[in-house]
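A quick word before the example. In earlier lectures we treated sequence and structure as two separate objects. From today on, think of them as two lines of the same record. Here is Class I SAM-dependent methyltransferase written that way.
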Amino acid sequence: MENPKHIVQQGYDRLGSRYRAHYENTNPERYIDWLTELTQRLPSKANVLELGCADGIPTARFLSQDFEYLGIDISPVQIELARINVPSAHFEAADMSTLSLPSSSFEGIIALYSLIHVPLVEQVTLINAIYQWLKPNGYFLCVVGADEWTGTEANWIESGTLMYWSQADAAKYQSWFIKTGFTIIDRRFVPEGTNGHTFFFVQKTA
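And the structure line, produced from the sequence above:
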C-alpha cells in the first residue's frame, strides 16, 4: 500500500473546498453540539488545539470567537482554505503524529474523525502526546472508531479520490484513554448510515 499519510494528504488536497460541500450535506449541527459541551467547561481565553482542522468550518470558526485557537492539518490545501475562511485563527500544515509541542500548553484539544486517519500503530503514542500537551484538568474531545477496521476507499466523496482509515473498536479506545490517565466524562455511539463512530469526551485528571 502507498504511504497511508500520503493517501490522506493527497485525498484532502484533491477534494479542496468540495470536502466542505459534502460536509454541509451531512449533519453539521452535531459538531456545534459537541463543541458546546467543551466550551462550557473551558476558562475564558483558553488555548485550544484542533488536530485535523480541514478548512476551519465549523470548528475553528466557532471556537476562535472566544478562545486562542490553533488548527493542524496534514493537507496544505485545506490549511490555505482555513486561513481564508477563519482569518482570526492560527493554522499550520503538519502531521499530527509527529508534532512537537510544549507540555501543558492547552486547556482543550479536539480531534473529530481525524485520529482514525493515522495508522493504528501510531495512535497510542499520539494519545499519550495529547495527554502531555494538555494542562492539568484539560479536556480532550474526539470522534474515533466504533469497530476495528483498517482500509481504503477508492472513490471517497467523489470519483477518483482515495482515502485511508485505521481504527480500533470503542472498548480499545476507552482502555487506551484510561491507561494514559484520562477520566471518561462521556462516551456514546454516533450512528451514521448502517454503521457509525464513537464520541469520547475525556479529562486529564491525574
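Notice the following. The longest strand covers residues 134-145. We will return to this example when we discuss secondary structure assignment.
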